[in-house]
Each structure stands twice: as structure tokens, then as C-alpha cells.
Amino acid sequence: MARIDARIPVFFAAAPEEAEGVAWLVEDTAVAAWGVPEGARDVGHVPGCACCVARSPVAEALGRLFRARAVGEVPFFTRLGVVPASPAGEAAVRQALLTDGLAAACYRADAAV
20 to 30 A from 103, CA-CA: which of 8, 43, 59, 90? Predict the structure, then answer.
């Protein structure tokens, strides 16, 4: 029996182009640092637990985009195009898809990539 992978496929491109069902994530060269919000460690959790571990800026962006899709803040999309500013940007996206639990549960690298 074949398994269905319902995660959103992610592909890389040099520039965004108009396409139905595709959302675009474009890397900005001025990347903000992300960390654990103030007070998050004061709720009785063990330091370093899964809900308090800082996520990468890419993983945060992927999570926000998926939430926006789920609640209708952005048009529903079935594919995600990523425009990295550098090879390091592409590597950061691939790393998030492999290591971040939420990103890996929602997105997958397109087989063509």
C-alpha cells in the first residue's frame, strides 16, 4: 500500500513567479535573531524542554506561514517556493526541514530539488 505524504512540498527558485497554489518565502539579508521569549523559562519547565528550545529564524518563518495558511490569513497554498539570498540561506531552509519538528511535520523538500 502506498503512503501519502500530505506535507507541503518546498522547492527553491532564483526569484518568485506568479503561480496558482504557490506561496513564496523570500530570504531577507537582514535576518533578525530569535530566542526564547522572556518568562518562558519561569513556567516550571525543565530548561531545554522541547517547547522552550529556541528555533531558527527559518523554522519560525515556516511555522508562522503555516499558521497563517491554517487560519486563512494568507490564501491557501499547496506548494512553497523559497528564494534564498545565498547558498547559506538554502542550507538553513534544508536544515530546518530536517531538524525542526514543526517544520518537518508541515513541509517536505520537493523530490525534484
Answer: 43
How many domains are there within the chain? Answer: 1
Helix (H) or strand (E) holding 77: none
Structural domain includes residue 88: yes
- Whether 1 is in a domain gets the answer no
**Residue 3 within any structural domain of the chain:** no
Domain containing 96: what range?
A: 8-109
Query: Is 2 part of a structural domain of the chain?
Result: no
DSSP the chain: -PPP--SEEEEE-SS----TTEEEEE--SSPPP--PPTTGGGSSPPTT-TTTS---HHHHHHHHHHHHHHTTSS---SEEEEE-SSHHHHHHHHHHHHH-HHHHHHEEE-TT-
pLDDT digits (tens, 9 = 90+) for 94-107: 999 999 999 999 99
* pTM (predicted TM-score): 0.76
Residue 39 pLDDT greater than 90, yes or no: no
